Amino acid sequence: MPRLAAASLAGTAIEFYDFFIYGTAAALVLGPLFFPTFSPLAGTLAAFATFGVGFVARPLGSVLFGHLGDRRGRRPVLVLSLLMTGLATVAVGCVPTFESIGVAAPLLLLVLRFVQGVGLGGEWGGAVLLTAEHAPPERRALWSSFPQVGPSIGFLLANGVMLTLSATLTDAQFASWGWRIPFWGAGLLALVGLVLRASLVESPDFLQVREHARVPFVEVAREHWRLVLLTAGALAVGYAVFYAVTTWSLAYGVERLGVSRTVMLACIMAAVVVKGALTPVAALLGDRYGRRPMCLAGCAATALWMFPMVALLATGEPLLMFFGFLVAMLAFVSMFAVVSAYLPELYAPRVRCTGAAVGYNLAGVLGGALTPMVATAAARGEGTPWGVAAYLAAMAVLSLGCFALLPETRPARKEVAVPVAG
User: Fold this and answer.
1) Tens of pLDDT along 316-347?
2) How distant, in Å, are the alpha carbons of 79, 146, 193, 211 from that of 196?
3) Which of 9, 230, 338, 350 is the most buried (most CB within 10 A)?
4) Which among 344, 332, 338 has a CA at the least distance from the CA of 399?
5) pTM, to two decimals
6) Rounded CA separation 19/85 (Å)
7) Rounded mean pLDDT of the chain?
8) Residue 293 binned pLDDT confidence (cut-offs 50, 70, 90)
9) Quick check: 153 and 20 in contact, CB under 8 A?
10) Dist CA 54 CA 369 (whole Å)
């Protein structure tokens, strides 16, 4: 289990590095380079629109790779999804700007971001299922939480590189060529991930399935559509909060509050470090008390914290912003630490790769694709952007309702019989 969990964690970290580096670049530099005829606000919105395309593509990736995972096994999904995402990310770093090739530049960004999204849509299902299906039932949330640590590491890698470049290069150097370096680095990371995953063995649950679904997505859509919609709605708030903190707040802090890129990235990264470190702890609580109670508590905490978080962000003070981000990340992790066990337990093994991945990635469309654009538009006026807080709190209430309609799936704890004397 430790070797399997480590390989899954490394792979998700690399894939999410690829995905996050685009979001950071969209917040900092892509608007002026690829949409120079737009106003600064419109350019940021356009850059976030290309960012959102990746989320729209993720459900398609979950269908395509879910079919492969349910028909041929979880292991091939891990290799092919990593290869696709890595190649697309390297290609983004090679796209000429609008000044060089005109409108073809943003169109190429859209295409490559779409390919990134398709690859990542397959990654989560394969990595989580391979770990969850090997894990002992009483510790399934714990072991399957390690792939969920991968996004935190990927985010820290992506933003650590951006932070270093931002601190060491001039604005002109960063805009000219510095922003491309993190994208090129994805090629080396992908090679490392492929080596780590080459020796993984297939999931025992998949090997025990006697009759595989002919077209898994059709079976999921016909027999489990309600479950897919509920899980998508339930997880949407997690995506919304994470990308409000890591993407929208970065752009807002730099462009509207005048906080330096370095300070904003440092505040966000510090909160994500704590979130990543506490993911296994929250997963242990999920094994102890159940998946559903953890998710309900996370949604309630999110709904209550969004207005204070936005107020703290609006101060522009680093320590206050960090505290606002930190509490939001703790609410987030109480949900997403256990969903890697929760979603697979909701589906039968014959359609598990498709069902779990489609629900998870549809949530990304609802919560991740729209949030940076909606938040940027809601924050256009002067003063504290309360509209952003209201939007995030409403998402939390929606997700709370969806979690309330889902069943608990934690395996029953085994009772040990105690012999009675006499």
Assistant:
1) 999 999 999 999 999 999 998 998 888 888 88
2) 10, 15, 5, 30
3) 338
4) 332
5) 0.79
6) 8
7) 83
8) very high
9) no
10) 8
